[in-house]
Amino acid sequence: MKKFGLFVMTLVSSMFLTAVFGFSAPVAAEDSAVLVTIEGSSFSPEVVTIKAGGEVVWKNKDAATHTVTADDGSFDSGALSQGDEFRQKFPSAGAITYSCDNHAWMKGKIEVR
Ligand SMILES: [Cu+2]
After folding, report:
1. Which of 18, 75, 80, 100 could crosslink 60 through cysteines, CB 3.0-4.6 Å?
2. Domain ranges of the chain
3. Do residues 88 and 35 touch, judged by C-beta distance below 8 A?
4. Tell me: the pLDDT tens digits for 61-86?
């Protein structure tokens, strides 16, 4: 009887874990954005290719404040402090170059296909 009780407890706890995992999985699936890390005063990767309708998220890991500013003015993150994120969707195909307002040498490119 003790063994049966242990079996039931194992079954119940694995069902609980399945329920928790089942609940968290769709949340992770929603976030299909391509990550660009800002670190060492550079965008990494510098060039990313995404499908039309895709999203890019930039995360600033530097202590310095950076911006993600499109050269054509189509988007601008404003000041990103350490740990801040900026998200941008790209609905149509084309290439968009961007840079950091605070550091002119920081450049990146999004290729939308
Ligand atoms: Cu910068």
Report:
1. 80
2. 1-30, 34-112
3. no
4. 999 999 999 999 999 999 999 999 99
The predicted pLDDT at position 27 comes to: 45
Give distance in angstroms: CA of 66 to centre of ligand 1. 4
Report CA(68)–ligand 1 centroid distance (Å): 8
Give the Å distance between the CA of 72 and the centre of ligand 1.
18
- Residue 32: its pLDDT value, please? 84
> Which residues keep their CB under 5 angstroms from ion ligand 1?
66, 100, 102-103, 106
Q: Residue 38, class by beta-carbon neighbours within 10 Å (0-12 exposed, 13-18 middle, 19+ buried)?
A: buried
Does 34-112 carry CATH code 2.60.40.420? yes
Residue closest to 39 by CA, chosen among 57, 70, 63: 63
Tokens, residue 88? 């941008």
Residue at 78: amino acid letter: G
